[in-house]
Amino acid sequence: MEMRTLGSTGLKVSLLGLGTVKIGRNAGVKYPRGFDLPDDDAVIALLNAARTLGINLLDTAPAYGVSEERLGQLLPKTAGWRREDWVIVTKAGEDFENGASQFDFAPAAIRVSVERSLQRLRLDHVDAVLLHSDGEDEAGDRFLPAAEELMRLKQRGLIRASGFSGKTVAGAERLLPHVDLLMATYNPGHTAEAGVIARSGQQGKGVLIKKALASGHAHDPAAALAMAATLPGVSSIVVGTLSPANLRANVAAVAAGRVA
User: DSSP for 215-240?
Assistant: First the structure.
């Protein structure tokens, strides 16, 4: 698996990252088919497969149900577990409770969220925390106090990098000077953020791609992954799956895209 620098963070990440929403939440998601949450053995097998394939980036969030807790419990049970083998990314600002998302970007709420994530993940620091946008990105200034709080948490050593997972080009552009990395949407049906992705890379910011498979709706998943792999500025493409076989296919598609 190709490794890339995550902007100027000093972190090296696999070109394909593993999204973990499906190990913690199956309500209120936008995938084409429903699914059951996997048992512990299945999660451990998936994480072992990811490591064997050279994947080191795991993406989670408080909004992903019990994903953080399960990673905290099960990562130490994987083969040859070492904390330094993984780059763990989580988020702050959104929680999912009682079937609905709740948002709070007040600095105090961001601080509490990060401290809670560390407890759930059983870590003394997390590699990156992204503000989990509620979609009101056009008023980008409203996220700035939260971004400043992430920088304070970085100074305290609780996080290594700060970021913004937004939903619009305007929001990404506004937050770009205030964070270390962006998470942006890019797939064959949504290419509007290609420009800000490229500019992010040029400015030394890390870029994580989300929804490369359009939440499971991509007509040609292999082509979509290959397309994202060759986009300038991309550090890693985060894709969720519960299947080791699908994970292997995704790795092959990313590799084929880089060769082509």
Answer: GGT-S-HHHHHHHHHTSTT--EEEEE
Q: Is 64 a catalytic residue?
A: yes
Domains in the chain, ordered, with CATH?
Answer: 3-259 (3.20.20.100)
Q: What is the 3-state secondary structure (H, E, C) of 32-56?
A: CCCCCCCCHHHHHHHHHHHHHCCCC
42 Cβ partners below 8 Å, 6+ apart? 242
Query: Which residue do the tokens 């999204």 mark?
Result: 19
- Catalytic site residue from 62, 64, 160, 168: 64
What does the pLDDT look like over 70-111, one tens digit per residue? 999 999 999 999 999 999 999 999 999 888 899 999 999 999
Cα 245 from Cα 221, distance rounded (Å)? 14
Token couple for 54: 């050279």
What is the token pair recorded at 77? 């049970």
Q: DSSP string spanning the chain?
A: --EEE-TTSS-EEESEEEE-GGGT--SS---SS--PPP-HHHHHHHHHHHHHTT--EEE--TTSTTHHHHHHHHGGGSTT--GGG-EEEEEESEEEETTEEEE---HHHHHHHHHHHHHHHT-S-EEEEEEE--S-TTSGGGGHHHHHHHHHHHHTTSEEEEEEE-SSHHHHHHHGGG-SEEEEE-BTTB-TTHHHHHHHHHTT-EEEEE-TTGGGT-S-HHHHHHHHHTSTT--EEEEE-S-HHHHHHHHHHHHHHHH-
Q: What is the mean pLDDT of the chain?
A: 94
Give 135's contacts (C-beta < 8 A, 6+ positions apart).
167, 168
